[in-house]
Amino acid sequence: MLEDRVGSPCEMHSESWWIRLMDDDLTSGEREQWNQHLWGCEWCQREWAALSAADEVLEMAAVAMPPLAIMPLSAAFTEATVARVVRKQRFQRLVTYVAGAFIIGLVAWVVVTLLGATYSALLSYISAVLSARHIVFQSLLQTSVGLLLSWKVALPYLVGGTLALYLVLMPHGVLVTAALFWLSRRRLSAAVAVGV
Ligand SMILES: [Zn+2]
Questions:
Q1: pLDDT of residue 31
Q2: Residue 175: what pLDDT?
Q3: Tell me: the pLDDT tens digits for 140-164?
Q4: Are 170 and 128 in the same domain?
Q5: 185 domain residue, yes or no
Q6: Residue 185, pLDDT above cutoff 70
Q7: Which domain does 98 fall in, by range?
Q8: Residue 10 in this model has a pLDDT that exceeds 90
């Protein structure tokens, strides 16, 4: 009698039965009866399908959007504010970096330009001095070699030239004075020697 009442379609179509069904609160015998009834009852199949679909949708929604459901409004606002402040700080840092890089680049350009001009001028001066010295050294070397090769031929000219140079350039120079002094002393000493 009780089993008939419990297992009857009337009982299974009641709200309390479906609440126990959803809470998984049925005994194993009741569940077996329920499965048999479900297999044959079109109304319960429709209800069961609709409930399952709703349950799936609810589960999916719960899985897909837990932060929105859980996060309080103040937390969301705080996060947005923090994000805005971080963005602002990043922008300011970027501006600082760009301005610093521009200033460094400008200073570097000015320094390189000035140094480059000075460096190129210095380089041309050094190269000019070096080439001049090279030319002078080369000509001196050639002359010296030529003189050494024909020193016997060049010696009278060299001595004569040197003397003429001394006389022309320093008529009252130190060397001429010294030479005259030396000559006069030699003459004097010779006279003394003769006198003695
Ligand atoms: Zn039914």
A1: 92
A2: 67
A3: 888 777 767 776 676 777 788 877 7
A4: no
A5: yes
A6: yes
A7: 91-149
A8: no
Q: How far is the CA of 34 from the centre of ligand 1 (A)?
A: 9
Task: Compute, in angstroms, the gap from residue 165 CA to the centroid of ligand 1.
Answer: 144
Q: How far does the centroid of ligand 1 lie from the alpha carbon of residue 77, in Å? A: 50
Distance 55 CA to ligand 1 centre (A): 20
Query: Helices marked H in the chain — which ranges?
Result: 2-6, 9-12, 15-22, 28-40, 42-64, 66-70, 73-149, 151-169, 174-195
* pLDDT of 59: 80
- In the reported structure, the alpha carbon of residue 57 is separated from the centroid of ligand 1 by a whole-number distance in angstroms of 24
* Residue 8: closest CA among 30, 26, 25, 27: 30
Whether residue 77 lies inside any domain: the answer is no
Residue 83 falls within a domain, yes or no? no
Q: How many residues are present in the chain?
A: 196
Give the total number of structural domains in the chain.
Answer: 3
171 and 113 inside one domain? no
